[in-house]
What does this fold into?
Amino acid sequence: MSNVFSFTGTVGRDAEVRYAPSGLAVLTVTVANNIGFGDKEKTLWIRVTLFGKRAEGQLQNYLKKGQQVFVSGELSQSEYQAKDGTTKTSLELTANIIDLIGKRNEASQPQQNYQSSGVREQAPVRQDDNRDNFDAPYDDDIPF
It folds into this structure.
């Protein structure tokens, strides 16, 4: 039996990369997943971990608070003692896939102003003897 859990959610805290004593890179990020609706809506916080070479790459620079992500991997649940002595549970996912989807929260993104000069540039048209002119109008009399 396979344990695969896939979901979409929002990054709750910027990703961190640490290295194990063996030199293995470990990327961790916390992702919020909303379930239910209306008065019954809840937020599940899932700690997502990615190991190895994929954790060493540039992904850490894109997993910032507010970024929407798709995550898939093996889900586990662990228990721990809180500071007040109560037993709490946490959801942890060892990721196989982390994909960025959508945009980051607009409030967390710097504004970018693009100015248009009003001049449109066109790609140059390549003139080859062996190619047809693709700018020609379609011929509706073609039998296929």
